[in-house]
Amino acid sequence: MRLDKYLASCTVMTRREIKKELRKNPAVVGGLKVSAPETQVDVKSVVYFLGEKMEYHEFTYILMNKPAGYVCTNREGRNPTVFTLLDERYQKMNLFTVGRLDKDTTGLLIITNDGDLSHKMMHANKHVEKTYYVTCDRPIPSYAADAFAEGVDIGDDKPTRPAKLMLSDELPCEGYLTISEGRFHQVKRMMEAVGCTVVKLYRVSVGDFNLHNGPQPGKYREFNEEEMEIAEKYKNQ
Ligand code: URA
Fold first, then answer.
1. What is the per-residue pLDDT across 68-105, written as a single tens digit (0 to 9) for each?
2. Ramachandran angles phi, psi of 221, nearest 5°
3. I want to staple 98 with a disulfide (CB 3.0 to 4.6 A). Which of 110, 119, 123, 128 is the partner?
4. What pTM value is reported for the model?
5. Nearest CA to ligand 1 atom 7
6. Residue 186 CA to ligand 1 centre (angstroms)
7. How far does residue 69's CA lie from ligand 1's centre (Å)?
């Protein structure tokens, strides 16, 4: 890999900044000073740059608390994408979202360039649970919990897989819904099937990932150690 690319993936600097810096402060690759940005570097080499030992990671993992108003596509269109919220250096990494949230849905979104993790979490036969906090336009009927536990017809070939609905006594229009599929507009269509329209949708968790120690609404950060272990667990499944 080119030295400037390698250093950009290990630091918060852009390739342009790195090229400029290298002229003044060469990197040390395997004990040798190197200032040419195009120098090929083995990712297993011991590299020092600006007095620090570089830690190379093959993949990038981001936990975002998605704000409303952004779409989860890589294609540019009418609406801003979640990728436009990311720092410039992430925008050059070919990242994608693990599953999709609607433009108006908020909450937990994983963004990565690790196709294996995405596959392990999103493949239809993996049945990874996703929990949403749902706010509807009217009280959610009490029979909805049983209906969702059985599976409901939302106009597809098959009814939905069993899902869990937890209702609250104090807030009759709100509840937690846990599904183990990822059909198009699934939560909204399930709520429509019991006569309710979703007015707000917030994703609380995906599998063992949650937002308890997560970024504030509208913010993002790279996975912490615990989340890296969770990712490894899914990848080994
Ligand atoms: N279900 C929906 O209807 N929308 C989402 O964004 C996610 C799940």
1. 999 999 888 999 999 999 998 888 788 999 999 999 99
2. -155, 165
3. 110
4. 0.88
5. 101
6. 6
7. 14
